[in-house]
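Replying to the earlier thread about multi-chain prediction with a worked example.

Input:
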Amino acid sequence: MATLKAVRGTRDLLPPETALWNRIEATARAVFARYNFGEIRTPIFEDTSLFARSVGEETDIVSKEMYTWEDRARAQSEKSQSLTLRPENTAGVVRAYIEHRLGETGQLQKLYYIGPQFRRERPQKGRYRQFSQIGAEVIGPPSAGSESPLRDAEVLEMLATLLDELGITGWTLELNSVGSAADRTRYNEALRAALEPLAPAMCADCQRRAVTNPLRVLDCKVPEDQPIIATLPAISDSLDEDSRAHFAAVTAALDAAGVPYKLNHRLVRGLDYYTRTTFEFTHGGLGAQNALLGGGRYDGLSEAIGGPKAPGIGFAIGLDRLVLTLQTQELNQSSAPRQVADAYIAPLGESINPAALALARELRRTGLRVELGEGGFRLKKSFEAADKTARRIVILGEDELQSGILTVKDFASGNQTKVPRADLVAFLTQSASE
Ligand code: HAM
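Result:
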């Protein structure tokens, strides 16, 4: 029988890498707390129409990358329903905002999430079919100030702070405005006109998009189409006064806060719900999949899925890509922290195993990180195992149990110390925090 493996585009995360994931998640939670965000957890699957109506039928995500299935009715009272594994989390958050009438509080809702997303993409470095995002959304009724450019700037400043605190160096914030819904309609018309004579020379996808949703032509990755795309009008020329003023206010606030950015008028993003501010943070170390995170404003999204007017702005960080970036950086600095236990307890003989478990329990309850050996091992084998996993080995035999004096050897210094059992916690705690 063929051996079973993780499905293409999915992966197992193993220690010590998972420690890095946890560190990033803990840092993100701490930063979000300082900006007064709360956590939201939405289901991993949703009604398919949610994504069709928010992300957009014509996007790559909805048209070819979703994991969708027909959930058959199991009882007369149920209807069969088309369900989809979430390809992103903004749609689910806005659905929850509407369902729980969060707008009626009159307050801005500041929500963050951490969790898996699913897209049937061609897997490569930094691109998976199951991947994780850390994201956040700021959404609320206009009376709560949800349309203010200050919200955009605050979210971007928070991201810059988070990346800095994680120790990510060399990121670039690419910034654009895709304007209001009316601006986008105008821009789509300008693109449609410009594309009419050009589209026949382009790829099949672009020929279709040129008619159905010309903006999506800008997402095309086919190399031969790029020179044509470079000649198309820029969206900045289609913005009305309000959109221009909004964008100018965002950049003015970023300038005041000292957050660096680069304007990129071609940045339209791969999802249809965006209005006005759009952005990506890119990183050179990531190769082809260079977007660490992406986001933007979505002032009409709530209404598009049947809710009240609720402008919002948010982002999602590709956690897998953040981990890749940090791993590359740490390799370069050769400072990847090795995960080691504070002590390895080596029982001398199987009869000592129960006493060793009791000692390990005592030490672990004080917060020490402890590896418990095996009394069946010869001492040499215990030493080898301890040297691989811990900073110190604690020998526990009949003599030690009788006398209450334990032998502790420190691998880095080579020092061997006799430590009374009553002093062991203090001894190890002191050495653990050295
Ligand atoms: P997105 O640009 O589709 O936006 O995804 C955000 C980030 O998720 C990307 O920049 C990338 O780092 C990561 N990502 C996307 N696809 C994959 C993949 N197949 N493998 C690994 N990482 C991936 C959104 O999802 C929006 N919901 C962001 C947002 C929130 N906009 C407003 N609020």
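The first strand starts at residue 38 and ends at 39.

Feel free to reuse this layout for your own posts.
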